[in-house]
Amino acid sequence: MPNRLSGKTVLIVGAAGNLGPVWTQALLHEGAFVLGVGLGVDDDPTLKDLSLTFPNLLKLAELDVTKDFDLSNLAHELGQTLGTNSLDGIVMNAGIDSVPGTGRLALEEYDQAEWERIFRVNVFGIIGALNTFAPTLKNPSSVVMLGSLYGIVSPKPSLYSHFNEGRGSIKHPAYGASKAALVAAARQYGTHLAPRGIRVNTLTLGGVAAGQDHEFVEKFEAHVPQAKMLSVEDVTGAMVFLLSDDSRAMTAQNVVVDGGFSAW
User: Considering 99, 147, 170, 214, which has the largest number of Cβ atoms within 10 A of its Cβ?
Assistant: First the structure.
């Protein structure tokens, strides 16, 4: 059903990067007015193209979620008013991940500073932004946290064993821990904000194809019941669903789109 978000204003926090432009394009094609904020939005080529294609439906502004920001100043940069009952939805997409194979050889090699770096963005930054934007949400409205497969299962060492000349690679444990924290936060925010008509859910994604090396893809797909990594088309429908009125009876839930990876 096209234009399920027609007439809705949706804020995307973390609009640049790998998935930010994917969400932006999908929401624009569904008729939403999109406010895209985050680091690098002014330089992202896909967002630039979308701004030309949808000049009246997309506004962009730089934002670092790890730093305190003033809502009125951000609204001025966007050329919008961000007062009470301004937003129909928020996508919390900002986060730090790592390219497969770039991890350490052992969990113990990740020190506290590295844990803090990831949590500063993936948890503290996201929750800080949510607390700031919550008063701008309408009744009803929807917030979608971006989760990860590794927030619900542990990374399989065999998927990364070919990296570092066969010595393997351990994905940063703080990444999965930070995404698990968002699932827990969404449950509490989703229940406590429900009386205000605000839904808060998590969208947990499996492996999304993004130019990973052939051997990793081959091993990953061998574990997936559907025998493939996710395409952007596989994930956008779930996002639109959670932001649309179709999910009006859902809050504090974790929607998993992973091709069946976590069901084994």
Answer: 147
CA 111 to chain CA centroid, nearest Å: 25
Percent of the chain with pLDDT over 90: 95
Q: Looking at the predicted structure, is the pLDDT value of residue 213 above 90?
A: yes
Edge-to-edge strand ranges of the sheet holding 58-62 = 58-62, 33-38, 9-13, 87-92, 137-148, 198-205, 254-257
Q: Quick one: CA dihedral 232, 20, 218, 172, positive or negative?
A: negative
pLDDT band at 140 (very low <50, low <70, confident <90, very high): very high
Confidence grade of residue 99 (pLDDT, cut at 50, 70, 90): confident
Closest CA to 59 of 51, 69, 67, 71: 51
Helices 232-243 and 20-29, packing angle to 10 deg: 60
In terms of phi and psi (left: phi > 0; alpha: psi -120 to 50; beta: otherwise), the region of 159 is: alpha
Sign of CA dihedral 261, 209, 255, 125: positive
Rg (the chain; Cα; Å): 18
Please name which of 89, 87, 65 lies closest in space to residue 178, comparing C-alpha atoms. Answer: 65
